[in-house]
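To whoever picks this up:

The nightly regression suite flagged Starch-binding associating with outer membrane as changed. Nothing in the input moved, so I suspect the structure step. Input below, exactly as stored in the fixture:
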Amino acid sequence: MLIFKLKLTPMRHQIFLALMLILSFSSCKKFLNEQPISNLIEQNYYRNTEEVEAGVIACYDGLQKVYDIEFKLTEIRADNTSGVSLEGDWGAIKFFRDAPSNFFVLDYWQRTYNTIARCNLVLKYLDNVTDPVKKKSFEGEAKFIRSLMYFNLVRLYGDVPLLTAAIKFDDFEKFKRISKTEVYNQLKTDLQTAVASCPVSWPNNQLARATKGASQALLAKVYLTLKDYPNAKLQLDPLVGSNFKGNTYQLNPSYAAIFASTSEMSKEILFAVRYKASANGEGNSFSYEYSNNGDARNVKASAPYQALFETADVRKASTFNATNGLCTKFLDPTAPQRDAGNDFPVLRFADVLLMYAEVNNELLPAPTNEVIDPLNEVRNRASASVYMAGMLNNKETARAAIFKERKLEFGFENQRWYDLVRMEESNTISILNAYLSATGNPAITVPAFRLIFPIPQTEIDLSKGNLTQNTGYN
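Regenerated output under the current build:
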């Protein structure tokens, strides 16, 4: 497997193939209806440190599958993009008429729980690891990845089944939905373990693996989502560095270089899902889907979104084509169709800086340099005009500026929808309705229940009544 852009030894390749055979049966490719291979065979492939590490690598492989399609539920749904001529499941997501039978809703659910199951298998056999340093790291990595998956699930679907151990295929009681509060409590616990267990850095041929810094940033984002600003600040403080320039992590001087397949994994990247073109299925398909020939070719930067960028803002050309609105962020013109090598950035230092500005804005009586300076760091890199003293003179104007900056900075990076749903509900609905009206769909209004997706009907049908539907989708 080439998830870390390295070559596997023949022995490791054999182990990986065996693990993939097991996981194809046992890790809930369909969350409920795949009967797992016997425990005896499963145990035969998690017997020692090397085999458990192969299981860890399989967790990262799961992330590839998830992030290859996440844009279908996030970027398409949000107010950055227009969706002229979108039909079928695409149009249903875009125009807030998705049903429990929507394939994209089901596909994301299944891929995410597949990855969670892989993490649970690693944790189940952790005691078979004899190297104490690796054992600690494997636990941190598995809990980081599992937390990332649950964080996305709970924001997209609300209450979800919380599986923290490998389960039997017919253990239907475990498929009941658990409150978001309990899911978030588990996230905080697991990410605290990841912060303590993941290494500060990895060798260059393993840069995709979770680190202490990535765990801190993800935990900060969880706290920020929960509006627990003091704890978010505790996680961000070590990352921002002196004068907001960063230490281990820094802004890449070139915004375009962050996304180019030839210059990835710079100091800007805290965590990315890695892809490699023409490498036996290790490439991504989202790069092609966003192109003029892809299935998402009608998902373009909306006119209101394009108008937000200042003329000199270098992010504009790196985010969309000014002529046709198509995404330009992940172009890989030399790659085969649906097999591109662009990594997908999940956590960037720009995100750290903007979270830090937001946290300080909420904690302080009024905006100070602790709010304005990290915000201006991001704008300076983009060659955008900076905020001068007095321009952001209260919490409300600063909060609006920070959310606007996030929208500009993270176009087509699946962040905008998650930002929308952590705003006050009435504000989110007002933004979405105004956007729909401005993009030619004034008859569509967004009811509150559609701020989360339906639970896939296939999974409900297979759960023997244990999995229930979100309100409004019955």
